[in-house]
Amino acid sequence: MTTQDTSAKPACDADARLFRAGDRVAVLPLQAMGGQPGRAGGRLDRLDYLVPPGLDLTPGAVVRVPLGPRQITGVVWGPGEGDLAATRLKPVTGRRDCPPVSGPLRRLVDAVASYTVSPPAGVLRMVLPIDEALDPPRPEAGLVLTGAAPQGRLTAQRRAVLEVISAGAAAGDTPPSVADVARAADVSDGVVRGLIEAGVLAVVERPGGRGGDEAPAPDPERPGPALGPDQTAAAAALVDAVAQGFSVEVLDGVTGSGKTEVYFEAIAAALRRGRQALVLVPEIALTTQWLERFRARFGAAPLSWHSELGHAHRRRAWRAVAEGRVPVVVGARSALFLPFADLGLIVVDEEHDAAFKQEEGVIYHARDMAVMRGALEAVPVVLASATPALETLANVERGRYHRRRLAARHGAAVMPAVEAIDMRGQRLPAVRFVSEPLKQAIVDAAARGEQAMLFINRRGYAPLTLCRACGHRMRCPSCDAWLVEHRLRAGGPRLICHHCGHDEKLPDACPDCGAEDKFAPCGPGVERLAEEVAGLLPDLRVAVMTSDTIAGPEAAAELIGRMEAGAVDVLIGTQMMAKGYHFPKLTVVGVVDADLGLAGGDLRAAERTYQLLAQVAGRAGRAERPGRVLLQTYDPGHPVIRALIAGDRDGFLEAEADARRQAGAPPYGRWAAVIVSAPDVGDARATADLFARALRRTLPPGARLLGPAPAPIGLLRGRHRLRLLAMADRAADLPLAMARARELVPVRGAIRVQIDVDPQSFL
Ligand SMILES: Nc1ncnc2c1ncn2[C@@H]1O[C@H](COP(=O)(O)OP(=O)(O)OP(=O)(O)O)[C@@H](O)[C@H]1O
Ligand SMILES: [Zn+2]
């Protein structure tokens, strides 16, 4: 695909140069050197090497270099930078046989490292996550029948092996590997090897699976659906953007307005230009319906990139992307760092979603870094959402992003009617969570042959388990958190920590007072809600959708299929089911606890709750039949609830934006957090104090610093945590202040300092 339209991308001079024997080059190693995060952004991240005779290197070349006694992999970043005498430099050992890391991608690594205050080596590792992919695949061994008849008795296992191989050969498949055959015949590898030794099977070379080539390519010329007038205008603007260069296009359309169909036109435009497209989604497991629609539009599937892909598959996929053999990739945030050979478009779907923020390792926001990559690659970025983030809208306001609006649902569908159920008037018994009006709405929907969805954003059976004899509450041994009871797992009820994964059997007796059978679950989780609905409405077919019951894409697809086939009357789930689904017969949505997210009081509590509930509400009435949304609340006057009922998103966002502006909070101010943690509380405190002192020296004038204060989750995985929060105006360079402060603070042993620029979570 790189052959067409290379004119659109000016050749980068810096990349055109060649390093020859005797030249010095700076190499960024893939491994962080000596784990010294304090050196992030400094020159010490890269090391100089000499180019040996017989090796020509371009910038971006992936090379092996000696480091101490080891050979490590790194990337040529540019000309040498140090002043060490040439005689003291070691030569590059050799090149690895993969496409070089492009100039824009190298600049992205540098930009992400400095923005997130992370070692560039750690960011580079996200670009080159699979060592084996850096060499071409070796030809693999495949098995064929020799024609020799097996000697002696033919066991059932051996017969199964022979059947698998002859069936494959008859179907024209490439010769399978030993492991493939063993799996298909359900025998051990030894059985297959035995047949090779006996001369019944022979090993032949088959071409190493390159991946991507076998799959048909998406075809942009297939006709898409006829677009409505607003959709046509929005699509034209996006298609135009694909022909230009960098811009950010905010596709702001109500739920069910057809944003997907519209940005598919931009993907088609990129494909027509022979370029690759990347679509980032919050969770790849939830893309079943999206993939169906992609296939319907383009006649072939895109590449799905996610962490659960098998190792061999990931390796092939990575190379296929790097070699330009994959036209479209859909993936979760890590796909942002794939080495596209010729990227032409980035789409971030559900751009407001908090799942785009990576909270471990390199702490980055994939939406924001996607915009950075778009700018560096000179390609457009489409941010699609029915509930854009305030950050995004502020950039629209500033004129930096363009907004394309879709004000109405597609076709005959209308926005659902939203009502509050004031729970203060409902007088439900303490163990009931579904009010009479909500129950009635579900019954009515089922009577009309329609479906209902109940939403509660809490996994498990009950968020708290308490001993009725002594009041003891079951806590996680290594976190500041209650243990959550889960009942849907094998082997009886379990208590699980949602922060660290600690998992124990629900004990028979209270660990504090010894009383037996006195545990009481407190409050509802999705499993308890399902139990209640099954009891209240025994004639209805209930299904549960939460990450505990839907472990991967297949389980999700199975449940989606049942919903689409009308085999489910009531779908009960967590935020997992809020994202993008389209069920034509779903007309009633019930939010069991609309107040749940509002209590937190962090910066985005109201915005997040609004987004989540608007998305959930948006699942109702997406086809011919009108939808109805019922919000159970104890606070019907809350601005979020009022805005949802009135359908006044813009009014709500304006008020929210005003409050942030007054407070100098993001997106009108800039924040960065520091989390210091250590097994010993005194160590954590001492380092946090030092960091605060350092920050007072490095922060720009006018910036404020809060803390150190114990984090809301003061203990996590056995580590004590303290937080600092730096607040400044938008122009301030907080990453720089953070990087400088870290240089000043020695961080030893088990103490950890995490820097979170633009924090989303305050726990
Ligand atoms: N022009 C069109 N012709 C036919 N069907 C369409 C058209 N536009 C949208 N649709 C259909 O309408 C439904 C809703 O569209 P889509 O899912 O793209 O909306 P959305 O804006 O992404 O919604 P959400 O934000 O809720 O995910 C889908 O089934 C889609 O196939
Ligand atoms: Zn825990």
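^ zinc ion complex. Confidence is low (pLDDT under 50) at residues 1-11, 34-43, 209-213. The CA atoms of residues 65 and 92 lie 5 Å apart.
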